[in-house]
Amino acid sequence: MASSQESYHDYVIKDGKFIGQFEEMYRRFDQPWMQDKQPNPYSRQAGIFHLQKYGIRSLVEVGSGLGYYAQNIYEQTGVIPIGIDVSETAVEKAKQLFPHLDFRVDVAANLAQYKDCEAILFAEVSWYLLPELKGLFDLMLQHFQGKYFINNLVFYKG
């Protein structure tokens, strides 16, 4: 368990530098990013709105964390997203919380494995994939031509 001075942010970005220790973060904190309360519901609802508007019936969610957004998608659309995350601990916890959904340990670089999905969803993960974005977009052009890319991105006041 984390100490009272420790923040989950320390495992993600610290002193302006990307740390990216997501596995360690999910081991030490029960609810990083307050996923169970969702402090940014408008961004998440916008993603669900687009799934509904365009009739999207299959998607891969990159960076699914503890699975709360995947559960909201399922509740509101009936779609069972494939949720992928780099953290084995996050995936294990998501499977315990939402055993009826599909969570896997994987990385964004393996998106081609999910080319049968109609959409790719990035929810608050673009910040962590900046060095890989060009390659990921090239991969999307090659394997997801004519499909959807939904990028939920919230900007925070510093």
Brief digest:
The protein is built from five helices and seven strands.
Strand content: 15-25%
Q: What's the rounded overall pLDDT mean? A: 90
Distance between the termini: 28 Å
User: Would you count the extended β strands for me?
Assistant: 7
Q: Pairing-aware structural class of the strands and helices? A: alpha/beta
The level-1 CATH class: Alpha Beta
Count of helix runs: 5
Sketch the major β-sheet. Answer: 5 strands, parallel
Portion of residues within helices: 25-40%
N-to-C series of helices and strands: EEHHEHEHEEHE
Strand order, biggest sheet? 5-4-3-6-7
CATH third-tier fold name: Rossmann fold
* Rg measurement, Å: 15 Å
In CATH terms, what is the architecture?
3-Layer(aba) Sandwich
Oligomer: single chain
Can you tell me the overall shape?
A: globular
